[in-house]
Amino acid sequence: xxxxxxxxxxxxxxxxxxxxxxxxxxxxxxxxxxxxxxxxxxxxxxxxxxxxxxxxxxxxxxxxxxxxxxxxxxxxxxxxxxxxxxxxxxxxxxxxxxxxxxxxxxxxxxxxxxxxxxxxxxxxxxxxxxxxxxxxxxxxxxxxxxxxxxxxxxxxxxxxxxxxxxxxxxxxxxxxxxxxxxxxxxxxxxxxxxxxxxxxxxxxxxxxxxxxxxxxxxxxxxxxxxxxxxxxxxxxxxxxxxxxxxxxxxxxxxxx
Length: 256
Description:
The protein is an alpha+beta fold. It is built from eight helices and eight strands, in the order ααβαααβββαββββαα. It has a five-stranded antiparallel β-sheet with strand order 1-6-3-8-2.
């Protein structure tokens, strides 16, 4: 099965995104997708995320609570692969050649999160992008709870934050905080400068990412578990890396 055939089977068509949405993604480097999942789905994903933290004892002795390849551990996260509008946006960024890098989660603790702006993977020239990411808020993203920030249009510059900023952790004059309600997904070009903001309130900010790369780049081992393989059909499995895709083990795990 070709990638194009897999996308059609998964519900992706020429009109899945509007021309205005495509233009916005090309121009700004990110796009809001509203009502991708229900509040009930969001509650279940958060509950499963918390269950996995306890099961894996991730974050013991520290605040990170990083989880990866969550699609192998619960079917609650299947929507993070199977959304036609997301797949259409990823296809727009990576130009018809991409593989899934799985579902990941990291929390933003109170008082933390103002991290350095970065890009996902190496910086590339405009139109030669190798990564695409998507942010799935499990609690509402606000101006004050450590939501992700992006710098619109930065994917077109062919430079990284460290090339032009004295302090990439500082506030960029053009940055936009991605305020979003649960159910909204923000997809962004991996070249777009981004990272989390300072969590100024006394509760944690939770989110998932569903991440994509252009072969032969692959940053995670996304080999499906037996349970995941049984759930996903041929079309979904076509979106996962092959054994010939070299895994780069140094992909940065930063809050986003």
